[in-house]
Design a protein that fits this description.
The structure holds two protein chains of two kinds.
Chain A: H1 4-17, H2 25-30, E1 34-37, E2 43-46, H3 48-75, H4 87-90, H5 97-111, H6 119-126, H7 129-134, H8 140-148, H9 154-162, H10 176-192, H11 202-212, H12 216-230, H13 241-257, H14 259-267, H15 273-282, H16 290-303, H17 306-318, H18 320-324, H19 329-341, H20 346-356, H21 362-394
Antiparallel strand pairs in A: 1-2
Helix pairs in contact in A: 8-10, 9-10, 10-11, 10-12, 11-12, 13-14, 13-15, 13-21, 16-17, 16-20, 17-20
Chain B: E1 7-17, H1 23-32, E2 45-53, E3 57-66, H2 76-80, E4 85-91, H3 95-110, E5 117-123, H4 135-144, E6 148-151, H5 160-174, H6 187-198
Parallel strand pairs in B: 1-3, 1-4, 4-5, 5-6
Antiparallel strand pairs in B: 2-3
The chains are: A mainly alpha, B alpha/beta.
Bound molecules: guanosine-5'-triphosphate and magnesium ion.
The site of magnesium ion has 4 residues of chain B, from helix 1.
């Protein structure tokens, strides 16, 4: 009814194709840049090495798929859907040993990647979206989209403006059907939470959710659980205060985990939020190749928002030596951009993000957020007052 | 490019303006000579560089193209801090974008850099039949606020080079003459000098 069916076919098509990419002999010889479609239909530009990496990634995805199927065969199809397994609960002694064992297996398994075909199901349950959906009547989403049809608000106007600007050229997203689905998800959400309404950046996030989840309705619930439970509060509301908090926490973490880089960047007068804001608001959907971004999301939905810090820190860690040689803001940005755009092998990133950055518990991060909140609020408040005094002067 | 003996100016430039007014398109037209009918919304900001050579100086632009949506406003100071030039953009076919542009100008004036080179850009002038903001209105506001005014179209490329050349010229003039022979490796130091001269 909502075009979900043909959407599903399309998503499956991307995944079942998994063709081996063969750059032409000319491209090989000249080491030219070639354009090709990745697993989720995005056009990627890269050289022959990149193509080879992507082929290897496809092979790894297949292998990882076999691991998951084997576990299902062994432990039952829904073995991982046991009580939610967060760090806190894992310590409870009442928990059965098998659950604990599963939790450990699952964490490792998820860091190694969820096969694209299982993503909708695994994300939906492990993120809490299924639970969220189960607390409202079955017809919630249909009712919501019907109720808001034809309504015009500032949010809907901005959404309409951004539909053709969201991943333009994508074979499904950039079709009337894709636009309509994305519109319903974003407009629906803007009515569900009028504090968020529509924030630019969510268009990319929702678009990627649509490509992964099999139905539009599930994409909607994923968006809801993401904004309401997974990420910190107020990341996308009126003055993005949550995002400001995350940026401050990130700066502190960089100073702690990559002190040499932090010092160097400070000497260049380079504020990391200049680049990191987009990472945190788009959840890397604009900066990483699709499968790599989704591998980050695999972990994000299971382990929580701290994952974003791991990944952002990893970019700096991976390029430490190069970054230390920079003399200019522009060079820093170029290195980071080139790095993120070329991370075709998700394992290259995730290995650094989790093994080299060292562990950070959700607890310590929460404490750091608490510590930063007052400063952010004071800063935003002061700014608002200054702007208001500006208005008074006009009169 | 850089002529020997020619002074080199490293200048931070920021683009501000409502969402969809064409900030990113203006910069892409200037930096890459391209235009896309559907340009993705900017989140946070995007960074570009471009070099312009004038007879009197070579200007190396560090361009920060910011996000236009109102709620991103709270991030703007980070991007305009230390800027030598600011380009405030509105869309001639949408009156509310002009209103927003005026607010940006006021805010910039209050942030205390009296040497800031400011341009008021009336973009999308190819949409003449849909015009809501008259040339005189823009011109007058620009004049009252010591900015220069220019009508552009990122789509047709009209006045894009003119815009950036004019900014470069004004930056060159704002710089006190310096001994020649400054080299490119001193970028960081030069930039510091620039921000101390200009703000
Ligand atoms: N007709 C016409 N369209 C333009 C012109 N400049 C930009 N556009 C279109 O307007 C839309 C918005 O342009 P952007 O350059 O993304 O605008 P922006 O100000 O960067 O927008 P945000 O990043 O959302 O703040 C795009 O679809 C462009 O193709 C112009 O001069 N004429
Ligand atoms: Mg833009």
């Amino acid at each position: 009814m909502y075009g979900a069916q043909s959407k599903r076919d399309l998503a499956l098509e991307f995944q079942s194709q998994i063709p081996i990419l063969r750059p032409s002999i000319h491209a090989r010889r000249a080491n030219l840049t070639v354009k090709f479609q990745d697993l989720y239909g995005f056009t990627v530009e890269g050289n022959v090495d990149d193509v080879n990496v992507l082929n290897e990634v496809r092979e790894k995805v297949r292998k990882q798929g076999r691991v998951w199927w084997a576990l299902e065969a062994n432990k039952g199809a829904n073995w991982y859907l046991e009580p939610s397994i967060s760090e806190g609960i894992a310590l409870k002694s009442s928990l059965k040993f098998s659950t604990l064992a599963n939790a450990i297996t699952l964490k490792r398994l998820i860091r190694n990647g969820i096969p694209p075909l299982l993503r909708p199901k695994v994300w939906f349950s492990l993120s809490g979206a299924a639970k969220k959906k189960s607390t409202v009547p079955e017809s919630y989403y249909n009712d919501l989209t019907k109720a808001v049809e034809g309504k015009v608000t500032p949010a809907t106007r901005q959404i309409d403006h951004d539909l053709p600007r969201t991943f333009p050229g994508h074979p499904w997203l950039d079709t009337p059907e894709g636009h309509a689905a994305l519109r319903r998800v974003l407009v629906g959400y803007s009515f569900r939470d009028s504090d968020v309404g529509y924030c630019q950046g969510l268009n990319y996030v929702a678009a990627l959710l649509l490509l992964v989840m099999k139905t539009e309705e599930d994409a909607f619930w994923m968006l809801a659980v993401l904004l309401e439970n997974v990420l910190v509060n107020d990341c996308y509301t009126n003055n993005l205060s949550g995002c400001h908090v995350e940026q401050r926490v990130f700066k502190d973490l960089l100073a702690k985990k990559c002190p040499r880089i932090a010092t160097h960047l400070e000497a260049l007068d380079f504020d990391v939020s200049l680049v990191a804001t987009e990472w945190f608001l788009c959840l890397f959907s604009k900066s990483l190749p699709s499968e790599t971004a989704l591998r980050v999301w695999d972990v994000l939905f299971y382990e929580g928002a701290k994952v974003l810090f791991h990944v952002a820190l990893a970019f700096f860690k991976m390029k430490e030596d190069e970054l230390l040689l920079t003399h200019h803001v522009g060079d820093v940005i170029n290195i980071l951009q080139k790095t993120t755009h070329h991370l075709f092998d998700p394992d290259d990133l995730l290995t650094v993000a989790f093994d080299k950055i060292g562990s950070m518990t959700t607890n310590t991060i929460s404490k750091q957020r608490k510590k930063q909140e007052p400063a952010v609020m004071a800063e935003l408040d002061q700014r608002l007052r200054r702007l208001n005094s500006l208005k008074l002067d006009d009169k | 490019m850089a002529r020997p003996g020619n002074k080199i100016i490293q200048a931070k430039m920021v683009l501000l303006g409502d969402m969809g007014t064409g900030k990113t398109s203006l910069v892409l037209r200037f930096v890459k000579g391209q235009f896309l009918d559907h340009q993705e919304p900017t989140i946070g900001a995007a960074f570009f560089t471009q070099i312009l050579s004038l007879t009197e100086a070579t200007v190396k632009f560090d361009i920060w193209d910011t996000a236009g949506q109102e709620r991103y406003h709270s991030l703007a100071p980070m991007y305009y801090r230390g800027a030598a030039a600011a380009v405030v953009v509105y869309d001639i076919s949408k009156m509310d974008t002009f209103t927003r542009a005026k607010k940006w100008v006021e805010e910039l004036q209050r942030q205390g850099n009296s040497n800031l080179v400011m341009a008021l850009v009336a973009n999308k002038c190819d949409l003449e039949p849909k015009r809501e903001v008259e040339t005189e209105e823009g011109e007058q506001f620009a004049q009252e606020n010591g900015m220069f005014y220019i009508e552009t179209s990122a789509k047709t490329a009209e006045n894009i080079n003119e815009l950036f050349y004019e900014i470069a010229k004004r930056l060159a003039k704002a710089f006190p003459s310096k001994p020649t022979g400054m080299n490119l490796n001193n970028e960081v130091r030069d930039r510091r000098k620039l921000s101390c001269c200009l703000g």
